[in-house]
Amino acid sequence: MTSVDGLPETVRLEPMRRRHVRACAAIEQVLFADESPWPPAAFHSELDLGGYYLVAVEGEEVLGYAGLAIMGKRGDHETSLHTIGVLPQHQGRGIGKALLRAVLAKADELAAPVFLEVRVDNEPALAMYAAHGFERLGVRRGYYQPSGADAYTMSRPAAATRSQEDIH
């Protein structure tokens, strides 16, 4: 279980397990119905590949999730925020921010940069990512299917790089 500042006391973060996959896929259906939501098999595949996946749980209910893919070898890792989502009725409670901070802490532990794609019109997500040190790199035209919506590619430097930039 992970404790994160700002998370409601009744909500806990814990590693995603196979028992959580069905609930996470159902949340995907709610949040991303028009954008090819991840089916259970996608979550199972990510778990099999050893990604860092967390769920936000209140009681026994999964409220949200986040997943960080980890690539490369030890000492030369790169990460990608593959997915993050919170049920609409629980948004605004700090759960998404807590999930993001938890996966970013893992990336920092690995001294790895983080990359992601986000819809260009998702203003709340863009603001949250910018507040956590992400910068826009470019646009992927037609990234989201089947809608054809564009996505910004964003990155956050590795912790060591950010510390060096702060010095200069």
From TrEMBL:
Signal peptide: none
MF terms (GO), sorted A to Z: N-acetyltransferase activity
SUPFAM superfamilies linked to this entry: Acyl-CoA N-acyltransferases (Nat)
Gene3D superfamilies: 3.40.630.30
InterPro entries in alphabetical order: AcTrfase_RimI/Ard1, Acyl_CoA_acyltransferase, Bact_Acetyltransf, GNAT_dom
Record's keyword terms, sorted: Acyltransferase, Transferase
Domain called N-acetyltransferase: residue spans: 11-159
Pfam families for this protein: Acetyltransf_1 (PF00583)
Domain of life (superkingdom): Bacteria
Name used for this protein in its record: Ribosomal-protein-alanine N-acetyltransferase
Organism, as annotated: Prauserella rugosa
